[in-house]
Amino acid sequence: MQRTNVLWVVRHAAAEHTVGVPDFRRSLRPKGRKQAKRMERWLGTQAQPPGTIVSSAARRAVETAQHVVRGFGLSDGDLITCRALYGAGPGTLIEALRRLPSGTGNAALVGHNPGVSDLVRVLIGSWIGDLPTCGIAVLTLQAPWGDLGPGTAELALAATSDGFRER
C-alpha cells in the first residue's frame, strides 16, 4: 500500500511595503514577525512534520520558512530555496514538488498568493478561499511526489495565524 505523505502549504507572513525596496527583497513587518512566531510555536505541537521545506527565494518567504524550520525542529539543511517559486502559479509549484527526491516523506512549501491558494484548489479539486498571510493548508496525498497533480490530495486542516493555539 502507498504511504500517505503530508504537504504543508504555507503562505508567507505579512511583509513590509517600503518605497524603493524591490518586491523580491521585501522583509516581514512587525505584524508578520508576530504571525510567524505564533505559527512556529503552533507547528511544534503538530503531528506529521515535514522533513523537507521548499520555499520561494524571496526574502519574506525565506524569513517565514525559517520559522517553519524552527517550529518543526529541523535544521537549515532541510530548507531548499528556489527563485522559480517567486510569484509562481500552481503548475510551477506542482513541478517543483514532483522533483522532490524519491523517498521524500512529508514536505512543506512556503510561497506567495495567489499561487499557494491556487495550488491548494488544484490539488484538492475545490476552493477553500485565499490563504491569508501566514495561513496554512495541510494536505494528505495518496500518490508519490512524482505523480502529484490535480485532485490528488485531500484537505486535512486549514489554519490561520489568528487561530494558532499557544501552549
- Catalogue the unreliable spans: none
Enumerate how many helices there are, as a single number: 4
Report the radius of gyration as a whole number of Å: 15 Å
Residue share in helices?
Answer: 25-40%
How would you characterize the overall build of this protein?
The structure is a single chain. With 167 residues, this protein is an alpha/beta fold. The protein contains 4 helices and 6 strands. Strands 3-2-4-1-5-6 form a 6-stranded mixed β-sheet, with helices on both faces. β2, α2 and β3 form a beta-alpha-beta unit. α1 runs parallel beside α2 and α3 crosses α4. It starts with a strand and ends in an 8-residue tail after the last strand.
Write the layout of secondary structure elements.
Blueprint: E1 5-11, H1 30-43, E2 52-56, H2 59-71, E3 79-82, H3 90-98, E4 107-111, H4 115-124, E5 136-141, E6 153-159
Parallel strand pairs: 1-4, 2-3, 2-4
Antiparallel strand pairs: 1-5, 5-6
Helix pairs in contact: 1-2, 3-4
In short:
By secondary structure, the chain is of the alpha/beta class. It contains four helices and six strands.
Question: Could you name the key traits of this structure?
Answer:
167 residues; alpha/beta; six-stranded mixed β-sheet; 4 helices
